[in-house]
Amino acid sequence: MAWFRNLRQLSPTTIPPPLKSTTPSFTFLLSHFSSQPMEVPPPGLSPTVPGQKPRVVVLGSGWGGCRLMKGLDTTIYDVVCVSPRNHMVFTPLLASTCVGTLEFRSVAEPIVRIQPAISREPGSYFFLANCTGINPEEHSVQCETVTDGLNTLEPRRFKISYDKLIIALGSQPLTFGIHGVKEHAFFLREVSHAQEIRRKLLLNLMLSDVPGISVQEKRRLLHCVVVGGGPTGVEFSGELYDFIIKDVSQRYAHVKDCIQVTLIEANEILSSFDARLQRYATNQLTKSGVQIVRGIVKDVKPQTIFLKDGSEIPYGLLVWSTGVGPSPFVNSLEVPKSPGGRIGIDEWLRVPSAEDVFAIGDCSGFLESTGKQILPALAQVAERQGKYLAALLNKVGKEGGARAGSAKDLDLGEPFVYKHLGSMATIGRYKALVDLRQSKAAKGLSMAGFVSWFVWRSAYLTRVISWRNRLYVAVNWATTFIFGRDISRI
Amino acid sequence: MAWFRNLRQLSPTTIPPPLKSTTPSFTFLLSHFSSQPMEVPPPGLSPTVPGQKPRVVVLGSGWGGCRLMKGLDTTIYDVVCVSPRNHMVFTPLLASTCVGTLEFRSVAEPIVRIQPAISREPGSYFFLANCTGINPEEHSVQCETVTDGLNTLEPRRFKISYDKLIIALGSQPLTFGIHGVKEHAFFLREVSHAQEIRRKLLLNLMLSDVPGISVQEKRRLLHCVVVGGGPTGVEFSGELYDFIIKDVSQRYAHVKDCIQVTLIEANEILSSFDARLQRYATNQLTKSGVQIVRGIVKDVKPQTIFLKDGSEIPYGLLVWSTGVGPSPFVNSLEVPKSPGGRIGIDEWLRVPSAEDVFAIGDCSGFLESTGKQILPALAQVAERQGKYLAALLNKVGKEGGARAGSAKDLDLGEPFVYKHLGSMATIGRYKALVDLRQSKAAKGLSMAGFVSWFVWRSAYLTRVISWRNRLYVAVNWATTFIFGRDISRI
To answer: Does the entry feature the keyword Transit peptide, yes or no (chains A, B) (predicted)?
Structure first.
């Protein structure tokens, strides 16, 4: 039992009672616990020393963080990622998963597939954890593991020292302090959200068929309300409408006349698009049967939305997509902020007050002192910043500035410049909008219709990160076309 | 507002306050609630009358119930299915979904795809509900809707009158009254179980990599224990082993030496198979590194299993598959039972004490008076019974015995005879067992190895019900082979 006593001494945690038995099965079992080579707990993530690679710590696993990790030169750096999810979500296709056009897994990309060094290199890690604090003086972050389900460990706290820290924590949905939104509405930002929306939608479809339900109650259950007319809200409405037309009418023929989609928006829908495309989208959605309601939500109760103008809207499913803002953790960080409360950064994406700390994506914004505009909270901004920063860190690393505190006098080269590539949104019925202008005022190509839809699908298919998921997205689209959407509620 | 007042009178349920507003958006919204044709609540499922088709009510959506529904002649009968899940699970492939070899949706088949009349025919329904009582005198069943998540309705009770009732409620896992099993172990019977196992496995893999975890705790977290050496337990162990060898070693290289699979069985593993195949499986699994422990579980605590011989086994994941027995609802039915507590049936699968009531699958067993052996709780038994009973009901229907109480004097034809087609089980590493003997004592082909594995895969691929899922299973297998298993924890 020497191995076991050693462990008792090594381990700082509470240890369950030792294995004890006198039967053959015990030695058999014990063989597992002792046959492996002795190990000491991982050396921990104390500051790196010569002989170790400098450590880049990435907080978050969204578009920004993942693009950065993908681009990092892992012969220079070790990569440590801290995130409550072990995959990146291909957000532009998330709306399609709610109705079964795509499978959930087709839009999720495991982080170790994006940067394989994380599982291969001895000094690179992925931790399923949340960051709970940053200490820029000490060059370290505090983290706490995520737990759920049966028999998990107590949340475990640990500290990671960094040479470079990248804050890529994203944003969270804005509710504008409206009462009841968090309790009763679904957001559409994570795969788990899409799964919940799907379960709810299918549950309502089935419940509405139960004998004795009044027509009014049936209509309420089958009234899908989307608040927010940005690309997410519009794409979700379009997908829902496709689902209703093609699948509900076949699979839920009893209730097909009672289902309805309503999109509530305070201003114009798709405000970032060309006015002509906005009109096209409005017309198409309305023609499809999606009701577009101009209004401001005042209050949300379990089965009814109250608008400022006094109207009451009964609903069965409520999806909330009115934009995003900084998370409480970002709010709590004591660093200079950009207008809008994001982490303030300079032209090289650095957090000026904290050496070796960078911020990218939705959680960051240019400081007023840079004279630059705050960039929109878009996947393409975060991705471009991640790509830029990976190149910057690789350059710094090659020039000997990879260690903590050693990049002060280096020339960082060209600052980050964002060039908008355009916007796309699908509106259902094999139609989409493509707006390739660099800004609202600029000139350039903008188009709408089937060709745009084809461009939209092709563009996203090539943007999906791994070949595996590219294959799955293509297979999903093909089977949806041939067999219809899957409606099993699992 | 005439439509609304009418609804108030028609509807027996509590009605939320009426829509009220004076703004344009109101009229717009109202148009949805009033533009559809007036409907009264569904006529309810009172006894069928001439002019309506006779009604077959099926309780359950497993192998038996689904095969029956598939075979029913829907020009003769209306079909009503009552089940808490709207899909059938292709159980033999469920173990593969836990480790990502197959996707969850590839093994789930929506019921309306199995019997499309359910969504098409005005008198056919699927209800997402549990049966709470059977009244054979009145020829009716009581049901209660399933609810979950946010804002669902209160469970709603309703009654369905039947002309023929088929009880196909399946079974539930046996825990032998062992304390802690229900709280701490996972079963492997539904897609949701496989999802939970997968989440837990991936969580443990990631938690075990957190700095400061003792080696002992790491080994505990990564110790996967399977209790029960039947086909499910063995297949799950084999799949887990494949996952460890091929994927964990690549994707979780840091912890790959700490993961271990143990299979606990009180007797021989795969006791229904040929002795030679049993030995082969034992050797192969042991060679793979799966520990097979002979022992009887006495108690299950959150992180430790206690065996009768006094040994204690720390675990991180516990899967329980020690066989199945009747559910509490089946136990509560006051009908003559077969040995083992199943619903007693005669040679034509009738419940003799209740006219027009049949029982098939795991929940039923031949009455002692028939002199027939109780059939094993296998998918192929349930499926064969479903097929037989569909043909019997179609014959009865054609001969004028479809209505409640009208089949008394009809000749039912040949009684049900079960012919065992053989058993198959995969044991990982491209190896499987195929035992084509009709019983343990009979002679016949039995084989093991790669060819068997190929037979196993081909056989199941052809058995998967829809072309859609057949395609997905094939694509899943191909991508697993090429890209490895998916490890995103969604």
So the answer is: yes
